[in-house]
Amino acid sequence: MIVVTGATGQLGRLVVAGLKEKLPADQVVAAVRSPEKARDLGVTVRKADYNEPATLAAAFEGADKVLLVSGSEVGSRVPQHRAVVEAAQQAGVSLLVYTSAPKADTSPLILAPEHKATEEIIRESGLPYVFLRNGWYNENYEQTVQQAVQTGGFVGSAGEGRTASAARADYAAAAVAVLTGEGHANKIYELSGDVAWTRSELAATISEVAGKPVTYTNLTPEQHKAALLEAGLPEGTADFVVALDGNTRDGLLGEITDDLRQLIGRPTTPIADTVAEIVKSL
């Protein structure tokens, strides 16, 4: 039996759908905070709240493998993830798979510290593990694409930094491959798209797909933060966005590996394909 945490999230739903294609539905458990939101998944649903350890113990009962989809509450993830690891230990699972971040144990990426801490907790647990160090998702730029089509441009402070992104479905397929395959225990996969692109190249792609001029304007970090504040973002969020652009500028999201391609057995989804889907939906 395979348990997927965060199964009503965008990644979790795709993983559950992929598992159902390879396993009987009664072998898949969606462990979710709000069970009523998971009724359409077509698998066993159990309540699992990262902040309520007792629910985790019940959700993991009888589990062979667990996919820990990292929590969305930045700043709270380490204690939440620790509770999941402890419940997995209690259940005696044979494999704990965790969605981490690129080079989590060494990277200065703003998102890395909580992932590094979680990886350490998992290693110390003694459980067989797999770290899926997911790179950036094409879909992270949905709002950027929408804004660019509507206004003819977008701004940032990433300079000529590259992003080796892939579609969320690609990362979900990798998780399914690891959960249903053999020989993955205690491995770390650095997952990225096959192509790394700059913001200027993204603008050119949006322009081509939308059939209208689109420009990217590179700002200093200070100018970028001012623009975000003017657009109504809270200061903490603005600082986070600027820091991510700084990480991109420094090359932390641009490294290409073939781990994702190898796991899913096909090329990763180009950013242009995702841009086309977003533009089509407008």
TrEMBL record:
Chain coiled-coil ranges: none
Pfam families attached to this UniProt entry: NAD_binding_10 (PF13460)
Protein name: NAD(P)-dependent oxidoreductase
InterPro entries in UniProt: NAD(P)-bd_dom, NAD(P)-bd_dom_sf, NmrA-type_oxidoreductase
Organism listed in the record: Amycolatopsis bartoniae
Positions of the NAD(P)-binding domain: 6-180
Lineage: Bacteria, Bacillati, Actinomycetota, Actinomycetes, Pseudonocardiales
